[in-house]
Amino acid sequence: MRKKPELSLRARALQYLARREYSRAELHDKLQRYVQADEDSEQSQSVELEVLLDDLTARGWLSDTRAATQLLHAKRSRFGTQRITHELRQKGISEELIGAALPELKESELATAREVWQRKFGVLPQDDREKARQMRFLQSRGFGFDVIFQVIRPIKDI
After folding, report:
1. Whole-prediction pTM value?
2. Is 11 part of a structural domain of the chain?
3. Nearest to 86 by CA among 27, 146, 142, 28
4. Taking the mean position of all CA atoms in its chain, how far away is CA 84?
5. Is residue 13 domain-resident?
6. How many domains does the structure of the chain reveal?
7. Are 82 and 144 in contact (CB under 8 A)?
8. Is residue 7 one of the residues assigned to a domain?
9. Are 40 and 26 in contact (CB under 8 A)?
10. CB-CB contact of 23 with 67 (8 Å)
11. Which domain holds residue 26?
């Protein structure tokens, strides 16, 4: 059985970027496990990894802005601001980029919450137990209580 040749860090990075957008921190974490573990070369390969990431960024192949935009478009129709913000932070997106995306997210959050609630439930809760269940569901999707109360408040209470 033939052994596959070892891929260079650049080749691995390009393979990852060909599939989807990555933030710099995300791609760094993915490639870090391929940096050799021996002490002498580990330092130089870590520097090599940073140089590679700088080069990919300079060429426009690696962009935190595009990674954030892609995640926003993929998640905004199913999740609330809190959940999306948490995911952006986990992917290493800067607070500056997150802050720039928040006004747009908050603007459409109520409509999104209503759509998510309508797909899942469609009927206002008839008792406290059902209300709590619907609230937990919306909360797990990252919607704030202010939005949740607007969604499941009966029309006669408005």
Report:
1. 0.82
2. yes
3. 142
4. 6
5. yes
6. 1
7. yes
8. yes
9. no
10. yes
11. 1-62
Tokens matching residue 10: 């650049």
Which of 108, 87, 88 shows the shortest CA–CA distance to 98?
88
What b/e readout covers 1-17, taking b as 16+ CB neighbours within 10 angstroms?
eeeeeeeebeebbeebe
Interatomic CA distance for residues 97 and 101, integer angstroms: 6
The strand ranges marked E within 65-124 are: none
Specify if 127 maps to a domain.
no
Query: Which structure tokens are listed for 128?
Result: 């406290």
The per-residue pLDDT string of the chain (158 residues; one tens digit each, 9 = 90 and over) reads: 655 667 788 999 999 999 999 999 999 999 998 886 545 566 677 788 999 999 999 999 999 999 999 999 999 999 999 999 999 999 999 999 999 988 988 899 999 999 999 999 999 999 999 999 999 999 999 999 999 999 998 654 44
Q: Are 80 and 144 in contact (CB under 8 A)?
A: yes
3's tokens: 């052994």
Euclidean distance between CA atoms 24 and 52, whole angstroms: 11
Distances (CA, A) of 56 to 14, 40, 105, 146: 9, 25, 29, 42
- Residue 14, both tokens: 């390009």
